[in-house]
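Quick one, probably user error.
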């Protein structure tokens, strides 16, 4: 790939640059959502960590299920928000 410098009197189109940046951003956001079955412990060490990640990334298509191992005990304090 040969890079050719722009002449001094030409600037890149700022609208095209913004559209390109936003398209990359939207692709990353849409792929980051949680879906399928996640295990605790396993995918997440704690229930609090799973809730925090769900609040940050959101729920993907088809939803997300947290499967908590039998005998898992945990104590955490509020506020841990559940966004519905």
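Nope, works fine. Designed sequence:
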């Amino acid at each position: 790939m040969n890079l050719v410098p722009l002449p001094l009197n030409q600037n890149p189109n700022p609208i095209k640059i913004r559209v390109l940046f936003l398209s990359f951003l939207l692709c990353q956001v849409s792929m980051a959502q949680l879906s399928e079955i996640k295990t605790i412990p396993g995918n997440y060490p704690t229930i609090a960590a799973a809730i925090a990640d769900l609040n940050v990334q959101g729920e993907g298509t088809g939803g997300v299920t947290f499967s908590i191992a039998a005998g898992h005990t945990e104590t955490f304090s509020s506020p841990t928000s559940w966004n519905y």
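The first strand starts at residue 34 and ends at 40.
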